[in-house]
Amino acid sequence: MVDIEAVRVDRASFDALCERVEGMGSGPPGVSARVRTGTWSALLLENPFVGVSVPSRVWLAHAPAGVVGWLLGVPFRGCGAGQALAGHWGVDLFVEPAYRGRGVGTALLRAWRDMSPLALGLGITDDAFRLELSLGWRAVPLPPRLVLALTPRGFLSARGRGGLAWRGMCGRRGGDGAEVTVSSTLPRGIDDLYRAVAPTWPFHVSRTEAAVRWRYGRGGENFTWIALRRHGVLTAVAVVKVDVTRWRKKLWIHELLVDAATKDARYLVAECVRMAQLQGVDLIETRITAKRLRAVLIAAGFRVGRPSDRFIVHATDPDMENLAPWKQEWHLTLGDSGNL
Ligand SMILES: CC(C)(COP(=O)(O)OP(=O)(O)OC[C@H]1O[C@@H](n2cnc3c(N)ncnc32)[C@H](O)[C@@H]1OP(=O)(O)O)[C@@H](O)C(=O)NCCC(=O)NCCS
To answer: I need a surface site. Which of 81, 103, 220, 247 has the fewest CB within 10 A?
Structure first.
């Protein structure tokens, strides 16, 4: 028999929680490393969305032998059809192999579902996906990734490792007078930009300055910010990152914060492409889901690439059900699996 304990995570309880989880049975090396290197602390303690209605959570499955499974509830906030949204991403679901197939995973998922006003998941494994659908989550189809190949060989060659060279990119005047800056730190003015842009996304997770700082502003991850300004006012931002393997050098576009109806959307995408070319990048890839931004990327030559991650939604609030947001357009990025 397994009991589920819902731990409300805060600074006072966090260290004790990590000790309990790390000492557990065989433990998955990947998850142990995430606890140790601070990913859990970033997701749960430094999370800017923590609030009374959505505290940071960890659900623990207890058997007589000790803790045999867990699931993180990572708070998020956003907006859907003009209504404020708050809930938890479900992250790092894990059950000790010896305890699988006995209903432990189901019990953890039920606890998350029943305690979250809105329970969102991305990048779901086959086993978890089947369970979640049987427990009432809906699969929301996301559009495929978009890709732009820049070199004839596409992804066959890498041109060296390391950070990005800014020379020739900073303080430049764009085609029609917008000032372009490239930096490794957040540009000022994100909150105002988000307020202007958010109404153009019907359903989205928040991109307030606190949110993007939490997501991209932590050291050591090498995100790059491409910003456009007009008369000193921030009008467009892209968050990008270079990923190098032996075979190819890829630029990921993580975020495009811009009103897709403005010409700065086109300039911003053009600056991303220009920067990629200067860096000897073989291809650009993005998981941007917002329809209007995708149209800008497609107009710039991007093509349909690999499918996006699986995305699941469960709402306990009947109003959310009635809005049927899953039939509409979600703009995600902050919760992309592997990137959260
Ligand atoms: C995915 C995972 C959490 C599922 O955990 P679990 O404890 O095995 O899940 P459950 O036991 O609740 O359900 C698994 C199966 O056992 C069945 N089952 C449920 N209760 C049962 C019981 N009391 N006795 C026997 N079988 C049972 C379920 O019907 C389910 O069958 P199905 O897959 O054919 O639908 C686990 O496999 C795991 O940790 N995988 C590795 C990490 C991972 O993939 N995480 C998900 C990231 S998105």
So the answer is: 220
